Amino acid sequence: MSQVNTLIVFDFDQTVTPDDTDQWVINAFVPDLMPVVTARFREGEQWTNLMDWALQRVQENHSLDDVRAALGEMELPEPLCNALAKLQQLEHTEHIILSDANTFYIDALLNHHGKRHLFDHVITNPASHDESGTLRVTWYMPDGHKCERCAACPNLCKGQTMSELVSAKAPHRSIYVGDGSNDFCAALSLGENDVVLARTGFSLAKLLTDNAHLVRAKWHLWETYSELHDLLLEEGAQTQPVPIQA
Questions:
Q1: Helix, strand, or coil here: 229?
Q2: Through-space distance between the first and last CA atoms of the chain, rounded to whole angstroms
Q3: Which residue among 29, 34, 110, 142 is least enclosed by CB atoms within 10 Å?
């Protein structure tokens, strides 16, 4: 196993891209479904199951090429891509996406912008065709998990997955970048040498602020992608023998 100096793990929706892929697809093709999805979620239905159902409804009148094209219209911020490209020049740095979206949405967006190569791995809910040819979304953790903190997201505990990544790769330092409440468990899994970069104005930032005594990792807030660019280069260079050229 090759040594990883810096492991950088990113949430995807509202982090790598400023918007949310699930909501983007629904609003692009079946906008009347969004209030229904929201109501059913509030009544207790599981989000990934709802997104599987919504994607089936989309495919009743639209092709997957249509969905790819719509996802390609989502923004992939240039400052973030520039930071990732600079960090890739360093030895033993790995970039991983850890997301509650799905493989089809993430690959469609990244491939449209020609940026899939900026990430070494994508960990998310699998999307695959069923016997009828319909694209379906299933759980990343098919049997669920036992983390009470992630009870609202039974298909994926990011804390458990982050711990497994750190155990397997043994990085000198881990950096986690996210925005949502399901990113908090990943943040809690990190140690004193690690860093969390949380998007201002979203759930993760509030959870870090309100529960700072529980968090061992250092953490910073970012609002713009230019700020995220600078933080990634600053923190990503901490375990490197040679400074990154900004």
A1: helix
A2: 30
A3: 142
Q: What is the DSSP letter of 148?
A: G
For 152-209, the pLDDT digits (tens) are 788 899 999 999 999 999 999 999 999 999 999 999 999 999 999 999 999 999 999 9
Of 27, 150, 37, 25, the C-alpha closest to 98 is: 150
Question: What torsion do the CA atoms of 125, 123, 88, 215 make, to the nearest 10 degrees?
Answer: 120
Tokens representing 141 are 């953790």
pLDDT band at 142 (very low <50, low <70, confident <90, very high): confident
Across the chain, which distance is largest between two alpha carbons, in Å? 54
Mean pLDDT of the chain: 93
CA distance 126 to 135: 10
The angle formed by the CA atoms of residues 160, 164 and 166, to the nearest 5 degrees, is: 115
Q: How far is CA 241 from CA 36, 90, 236, 238, in A?
A: 53, 9, 11, 8
Among 76, 6, 73, CA closest to 238: 6
Spatial CA neighbour of 152 closest among 43, 8, 47, 240: 47
pLDDT, one tens digit per residue, over 99-140 is: 999 999 999 999 999 999 999 999 999 999 999 999 999 999
SS3 93: strand
Are 125 and 155 within 8 A, CB to CB?
Answer: yes
pTM for this entry:
0.94
